[in-house]
Amino acid sequence: MQVEGVPELFEGGAQVSGRLGTSERFPRRLIAEHRIAFVKIGTHVRIAESVLNAYIEASTVPAIRPVRSGGRRFERAA
Questions:
Q1: How far apart, in whole angstroms, are the C-alpha atoms of residue 32 and residue 12?
Q2: What mean pLDDT is predicted for residues 62-66?
Q3: What sign has the CA pseudo-torsion 30, 33, 38, 39?
């Protein structure tokens, strides 16, 4: 059941790691190192979908492509 005004929350382990394509240990490390925002409800830890999307966006590295001017420089891909 989704409550209006409350963001959808993920489980702390399997759902987040499945979304990131990592082991279950990686989201736990992000939480332990306070590298991602989370909500702690008793002993349960939850990560909001919007926070996870922001983390993925901030961690995305843009592709680069070589400049064909004969030099060995690179520029960001559009």
A1: 11
A2: 81
A3: positive
Task: Read off the tokens for 31.
Answer: 């939480």
If you count them, how many residues does the chain have? 78
What single-letter amino acid sits at 33? E
* pTM for this predicted structure: 0.68
DSSP conformation letters of 18-50: HHHTS-THHHHHHHHTT-S--EEETTEEEEEHH
Which H/E stretch holds residue 76? strand 74-76
pLDDT at residue 2, as a whole number? 58
Select from 58, 67, 55 the least CA-distant residue to 19.
55
Per-residue pLDDT of 5-27, as tens digits, reads 766 778 778 899 999 999 999 99
Please name which of 39, 58, 40, 47 lies closest in space to residue 19, comparing C-alpha atoms. Answer: 47
